[in-house]
Design brief:
alpha/beta; Rossmann fold; Dehydroquinate synthase-like, alpha domain; 2 domains; six-stranded parallel sheet; 8 strands
Amino acid sequence: MSAFSFATANSIHFGEGVAKTIPSLLQESHGPLFVLTGSDSKRHAQTLGLLTQAGFEVFIHPVHGEPDLNSINLATNAARDSGAKCILAIGGGSVIDTGKAVAALATNSGQLIDFLEGVGKGKALTEDSLPFMAIPTTAGTGSEVTRNSVIGVPKAGVKVSLRSASMLPTWAVVDPELTYDLPPEIAAYTGMDALIQCLEAYLSKNSNPLTDGIAREGLRLAARSIKAACKAPLDTHAKADLCAASLCGGIALANAKLGSIHGFAGPLGGMINAPHGAICASLLVPCYSANLRALDSRDPQNPSRSKMNDVATLLTGNPQAKASYAVAWFESLSNALPLKTLGELGLAKEQFEEAARKSASSSSMKGNPIELTKFELIEILEAAL
């Protein structure tokens, strides 16, 4: 067995109603709280009210859209001006990624671009982040337990990561009740992201026994509940399953990396204006199928190839299921949810070459179980269009 390391958030709190305990979790925090929310901060009035009632000085900063250089710099300056000693983020993956970046940059001098992979100098963050609490309101990204923030760089047309072990949240507070009012479309593509992250972390060539167990359980939970979690009437058990699956996916990917789906999703997110989870969902069947063909033809003894049979069993409940059964299951799931193709999300054929080139060198692609050729990458995009 190869050596491995494992890390996650310092403290994880999960369950219906657990958001009501936030003030008590913050008892040791001294000084103002800088709270990032989605564009409609009123949606979280009840949770924010608990903080003010407990006597905390609260500064609220709404986040509009996915994080980029400008929005991160604005939020960081606001946090510094507030004198905040603790950062909270309540919202989807974009809000939490913004919060992680702000908590890190508030204590490190220098320009954000200098710390970014690929487009900047790749400088290390030398100072510990401010204490940071992540409170997800979608079940998908797992950002509440990862050590990076995905940031758009519009001039370069890419999304890259700010990354540091110190960016792991101090507290992850996962309350399924906060996801109950998600519109079906958002529930679908964030839920697909949760499922895909468990899948890719399990098949990653960097997986280990700990991530395997967590990813398998997350995949099982997502598979049994994603359809029910994305439609009326409200199914609270399904919502809780999907939140747990998202948590599992975040823990697993932070320690095992991902694969070709997320290898594409990062660069594509910088090329088209589409939600990350929606891009991932459009690539699920084409990427999984391409990996299966590549492993069968070039590396049938690869450990990830036998894991693909395990995936099929987890999804279908059939102990004799072959890997190809998973393809049919994914197709059926994709057709049952309100999802869009990559073409409907805005990608054009003329962008294939650029997308394939950028994706081949992306950090997530490095976890893929087998190296895919340029032809295979283009073929995936054609199938996803």
